[in-house]
Amino acid sequence: MDLKTSVSTRAIQYALAYLFVLVALYPIVLMVASSFKTNMEIFANPLSLPQSFSLDIYRKLWEVVPFGDFLLNSVIVSVTSVVLIAVFSAMAAFYVARFSYRWTGVLYFFFLVGLMIPIKLGIVPLFLLMKDLGLLNSLWSLILIYTASGIPISVFILTGFFRTLPVELEEAARIDGCNHFQVFWRVLLPLIRPALGTVVIINFISAWNDFFFPLIFIQEDALKTIPVGMMVLFGEYETDWSLLFAGLTLSALPMIVVFLLASRQFMEGLTAGAVK
Amino acid sequence: MANIGVPKRQTITPKGRLRWIVHLFPLPALIIYAMFVVYPIFSAFTYSLYEWNGIKQGVFVGLKNFLTLFSVEPFNTMFWNAFGHNVIYFLVEMIVQNGIAFTLAFFIYRKLRGSGFLKVAYFMPRLLSVIVVGFLWKLILNPNYGALNTLLTNLGLGSWAKPWLGDPDTALLAIILVNCWFGIGFAMLIFLAGLQSIPEELIEAARLDGAKGISMLVKIILPLCMPAITIMTIFTFIQAFEAFELVYAMQGSMGEPFRSTDTLAVYFYRLAFSSAGGGDVAIGLGSALAVVLFAIVASVSALSLYLMRKREVQH
Question: Which Gene3D superfamilies does the entry mention (chain B) (predicted)?
């Protein structure tokens, strides 16, 4: 679009746009910078830059809380649930999009109802269910709830995508002697890769950052994920600000690194999931 | 808005001896989803109709839990107090978060240099876990050693420095503004997608008819952005009425100070998991509150989706 804009309007737009960059990024920069400061430095002047650079505080962090465990638990839970969501949702979407039995419409609607369910409101029955299944204090409780709550949006996105694919490819593969599973694995999964990317990103961010379910399901420190692990840190080392900032930085780091590697996919994936 | 024209529906009729196998495809998703999403929500509805002793289900009491929630002290006062905060949450986010987000989206739409960098920068806070956001800002807003008060003092605005989270007059607003900081990048992307989906010919035609500046924005661009604005309004509403994590991280499950930051979801958490109101956990009351909250969120999002569909058809 080419609208005439006066130079002064343009200048104001630039000023505001970059001012807001400062608002968005400064707290994050402050978090990282503060982690390299001693407590004395932080309390004397919260805004100053660190006097020296050392990773000692991160070594200390690793010693006082089982951060390695938290990180490993977060990875296990997020990766497993994202893989399960992607595979199961793709299979369900394939069925809904490609076959027209009397019940496929109802089935699709049943999945879509989940888009409107705020699952956290079912936390009491979920807690009792996990208790009965013996899954409290088990990473499986988290994997199952993330998988279940990620399925509706993923089935929705993938079904929409399947419907845009021509059916001839599958028929050709079938004529070549592939059975349904082979068609699905060898022909369709590679074709729906862009939509799978969206599904993976949306669900990975919400599983990685979730704090509510581990708060309820996991009591044992060694089984906590990073977000609830931070509560342990803030509960026990309230006055050691240097350590607290280091904990926050380390919690934020993995996601920021992944984001910087694939920022376009992240932003497109998240908004695609939202507006479709 | 990726509103790809819906192609003609193509389906397959399975043939051969093993055709029943296709019915296995939806099963894993269906079972997990039914067991861990549908069943718990359905149970929450039935739980609200029973009396509970701790985590033991008692006798059927009909709507007694709902009556208690709305007519017995302190439950009714706490409900309306929290409800009011959710409404403020929604309104402030609509004005501040979505207002700033739309403005920034509009700037980028008008082709500012470095728009790729701007988008990444605005989006960055959204990557943090809400609990990290809450704890980080708790440190920044600390009255003694926090960065914000120090910054204000350095700018000569020392009299503005406040114990933001300790003062019942500012605590809720502080939390909501932190939420805005977290959410602006995402809202901006939604609005930008909306702006970029406006056909250029329409803008050009309006310009030839003499629309410019503010009138172009209000009469042409905003109405054409309605789908994105509606979506963002629904998201903001749902998020505002489910607000829990940030309050919990920054002010604890009591909505300190003096319940000035309490929200319905935090109140729900107290009823269901910690002994609030003096007694034991109150699963019956908590479930009743969950049902009310569910009804609020689901009805508003269903209504706005319905209105949006209707408008889309008219276009």
Answer: MetI-like
Nearest to B190 among A114, A129, A271 (CB): A271
CATH topology of domain A61-275: MetI-like fold (1.10.3720)
| In a shared domain, residues B152 and B263 | yes
Domain that includes residue B246, residue range: 81-274
Instruction: Show residues of chain A in contact with B32, CB under 8 Å.
Output: 84, 88, 144, 147-148, 151
Q: Compare CB distances from A14 to B7, B43, B112 and report the shortest one's residue.
A: B112
* DSSP reduced 3-state for B60: strand
Instruction: Please tell me which residue of chain A has the smallest CA distance to B186.
Output: A271
- Please indicate if any CB of chain A lies within 8 Å of the CB of B125: yes
**Can you give the residue ranges of every domain in chain A?**
61-275
Touching B: A residues 126-165, CB under 8 Å:
126, 128-129, 144-145, 147-149, 151-152, 155, 160, 163-164
Closest in B146, B200, B228 to A46, CB measured = B146
Considering the domain architecture, whether residues B187 and B255 belong to the same structural domain is answered as yes
A209 in contact with B, Cβ within 8 Å: yes
| The total number of structural domains that make up chain B | 2
Instruction: Go through A25-50 and write b for each residue having 16 or more CB atoms within 10 A of its CB, e for each that does not.
Output: eebbebbbbbbbbbbebbeeebeeeb
Same domain, B100 and B208: yes
pLDDT tens over chain A, length 276 residues: 445 567 888 899 999 999 999 999 999 999 999 999 988 888 888 888 888 888 889 999 998 989 899 999 999 999 999 999 999 999 999 999 988 888 888 999 999 888 888 888 899 999 999 999 999 999 999 999 999 999 999 999 999 888 888 888 888 888 888 887 888 888 888 888 888 988 998 899 999 999 999 999 999 989 999 999 988 898 888 889 999 999 999 999 989 998 988 888 888 877 776 654
What predicted TM-score, i.e. pTM, was given to this entire model? 0.90
**B154, B294: one domain:** no
CA–CA dist A242, A33 (Å, integer) = 10
Within a domain: B22: no
Q: Are residues B192 and B44 in the same domain?
A: no
ipTM metric? 0.89
Q: A109-112: long-range contacts at Cβ-Cβ below 8 A with a sequence spacing of 24 or more?
A: A110/B30, A111/A151, A111/A152, A111/A155, A111/A156, A111/B29, A111/B33, A112/A152, A112/A155, A112/A156
Residues of B in contact with A162 (CB under 8 A): none
Whole-angstrom distance, CA of residue B50 vs CA of residue B65: 8
